[in-house]
Design brief:
184 residues, mainly beta, 8-stranded mixed β-sheet, 1 helix
């Protein structure tokens, strides 16, 4: 295993990083103390040798009610990034981004405003087809968590998750009847 440092601008305070599907590094960072204390995010892409550092987004990303923060999951089309409550669309693509748009995601009715929902979404992931997404809704009523899958459809001002299906059991943890110290 070889570990190396990458050269990045001095004012960059790294929040997280991941690879895009084209092989670039997508970096989330804060650039000053004021940004560290609020919902302001900067995103940049660069080569994994540290060259060609380019900022592609600098703005507020305000998590919506019962959200589990902000995540950065790149679509395989290399044009969009799933953030949890939003999709960041990059034009013409992430690597050559000249402009971007933050587009709200509408989760199924009742998940955000249900009194038993602790987190509307957690553990988000986008499928290789660039359409289907899966997520876990965390509950505070003894169920624990429910896993969903649905199709992310773009409308004028938002994405709506359609054709939603539950893909998990509705019970949280059960003891294994064969092995007493195991759970199912």
């Amino acid at each position: 295993i070889k570990v190396t440092d990458l050269p990045i601008p001095d004012n960059v305070k790294i929040v997280s990083a991941t690879y895009t599907h084209s092989g670039k590094v997508l970096l989330t960072y804060k650039a000053n103390d004021i940004q560290e204390k609020n919902d302001f995010y900067n995103l940049a892409v660069f080569n994994d040798d540290g060259t060609d550092f380019r900022n592609i987004f600098s703005d507020f990303i305000k998590p919506c009610g019962r959200a589990n923060g902000v995540r950065f999951m790149c679509f395989q089309d290399n044009k969009r990034i799933l953030l949890g409550d939003y999709v960041l669309e990059c034009y013409p693509d992430i690597d050559n981004c000249e402009s971007s748009e933050l587009v709200f995601i509408e989760y199924p009715y009742g998940l955000r405003n249900n009194e038993f929902t602790a987190m509307c979404w957690s553990e988000i992931i986008i499928a290789p087809d660039n359409e289907h997404m899966a997520w876990t809704t965390l509950r505070n009523d003894g169920v624990g968590a429910i896993d969903f899958i649905g199709a992310l459809k773009r409308y004028n001002d938002r994405y709506i998750i359609e054709d939603v299906q539950i893909i998990s059991t509705l019970s949280f943890v059960e003891k294994d009847s064969v092995h007493n110290s195991y759970i199912l």
